[in-house]
Amino acid sequence: METKRLYRSGRDAMVGGVCGGLGEYFNVDPTLVRLAFVLLAFATAFFPALMLYLILWIIVPRGGA
Hints:
The protein is mainly α. It has a domain at 18-59. It is 54% helix and 0% strand. Helix 1 (18-25) packs across helix 2 (30-43) and helix 2 packs across helix 3. The longest helix is centred in the middle third of the chain and has 14 residues, at 30-43.
């Protein structure tokens, strides 16, 4: 059994590849993940969502292309 690992997307990246990587990990269209992130940003007045994205950008390793 192969273990799933979370990586930033190397081929489906708009800014840092975080949403693309989450989409690949959960087998969801990355556009839906991006839309959910934007809705989260509006719901939290941008700052907490932006901090979450930056932390994930730093912590999650870059995946292959």
